[in-house]
Amino acid sequence: MAVPKTSVLVLDCAEPKELADFYAVLLNAEVHVGHDSDIVEVVGHSGVHLAIRKDHGYAPPSWPRPEDSQQAHLRILVAREDMDEAEREAVGLGARPLDTKDNGGVRDTRLYSDPAGHPFTLATPG
């Protein structure tokens, strides 16, 4: 019998509380600060669970990487009819567009970086 497990994606950054606040608003989730203020969790009612960890020597990832290697990134699913509003919300919270050339159509995918530089996509399910 397998031991029950869960997983959490951990993002490193210089200011964990600020990045946690960004994702909590974007994902309609809550920020949980525990005993160790260097790790902050973002927990939502629809399965959202991220951890944000303080890295004192943090340097944001680059996109695209010169060698075109795939980096880990969040893929946030948004209903097609809500995509433009989700984009305005993300940018209004501090996200920076990286590549939105594939916006529109059946496979709408828009790439951004969060305020700490981590890439994430807004994408329609499919």
Please mark out the parts with pLDDT under 50 across 5 or more consecutive residues, or reply none.
none
- Structural class determined from secondary elements: alpha/beta
Strand content: 25-35%
Morphology call = globular
Question: Overall mean pLDDT score?
Answer: 85
Helix percent reads 10-25%
Described by strand count, sense and barrel closure, the largest sheet is:
4 strands, mixed
Alpha-carbon Rg, integer: 15 Å
Helix run count? 2
The order of strands across the largest sheet is 1-4-3-2
- SSE succession: EHEEEEHEEE
Could you give the count of β-strands?
8
Could you tell me how far the N terminus lies from the C terminus, measured between alpha carbons in angstroms? 33 Å
How does this structure look, described?
With 126 residues, the chain is α/β, with parallel strands linked by helices. The chain contains 2 helices and 8 strands; from the N terminus they run βαββββαβββ. It has helices spanning 16-26, 83-93, and strands at residues 9-13, 29-33, 39-44, 49-54, 74-77, 96-99, 109-113, 119-123. It has a 4-stranded mixed β-sheet with strand order 1-4-3-2, covered by helices on one side. A 4-stranded mixed β-sheet has the order 5-8-7-6, covered by helices on one side. The longest helix has 11 residues, at 16-26.
